[in-house]
Amino acid sequence: MTEQYTSDEMMTITAARALNNNSTCFVGIGLPSAAANLARLTHAPDITLIYESGTIETKPQVLPLSIGDGELCESALTTVSVPEMFRYWLQGGHIDVGFLGTAQVDRYGNINTTVIAASHKDSGPDGAHSYANPKVRLPGGGGAPEISTNAKEVIITVRHSKRTFVKDVDFITTLGFGRDGQVRKGKSTLGKGPTLVISDLCILKPEDETNELIVVSLHPGVTKQQVIDATGWDIRFADTLQTTDEPTSSEIEVLRELKRVTEAAHSQTETA
Fold first, then answer.
1. Structural domain count, the chain
2. How far is CA 216 from CA 37, 68, 236, 237, 260, in A?
3. Does the active-site annotation cover 253?
4. 256, 56 Cβ separation under 8 angstroms
5. Is 229 part of any domain?
6. What is the pLDDT of residues 79-137, one digit of tens each?
7. Catalytic residue, candidates 3, 9, 52, 146
8. 113 lies in a domain?
9. Residue 215 sits in a domain of what CATH number?
10. pTM, to two decimals
11. What mean pLDDT is reported for the chain?
12. Domain region containing 96
């Protein structure tokens, strides 16, 4: 029997499994970084992890606090300039997977990391909310908009709640499939966009034709009603609904050790 695990561990391990050993992955900070490095430490030791700061084939022993964390450069095969990273690696079509987190994601896989609107009464005709007078101003897009349009595909990982899974994002920082789900149609210069959204409750994929996110797999012990209650639109489920494989004891052990080492390293930095 698999040992007990948390919903966050379930999400991180499921996201890690979505990566394979031959992938070149552009990694976001936070949940994506934890999942990508777990993949490297388990089933995908030869995966190439690239961070926005220009570090290539990085193998951090502790999870970075930001793209500027020295751990990334020190453990990388090489470090190139940011313009080269975007111009050659990303825009040149060398990135298989963009791995992103977000503050909001909507039914068409659009990402918002820019502003949270003050209220829905500020909504514009296209469903967008107030940019000028937000309730919260977020860090912004960083390299995510370019990753979403240039990577061959995108995986999103985020905790599931009505605050994060909204019908329409307050601001499209990073393009999924647009406000109508059809913006990538016929545009060969764009990547596939979001192919997977992995939360702590389930796995979602874009539906054929509409590109609306639908649930294809529930994590063990999670019910449909839990997902419905945590989603800001009328979420739909695949006709054949799967149950996500449980984490193995080995995956849990490696993830917990990675988190332990990371916490210890960052605690030393704060007290130094």
1. 1
2. 25, 36, 9, 6, 32
3. no
4. no
5. yes
6. 999 999 999 999 999 999 999 999 999 999 999 999 998 655 545 544 445 677 788 99
7. 52
8. yes
9. 3.40.1080.10
10. 0.91
11. 92
12. 7-271
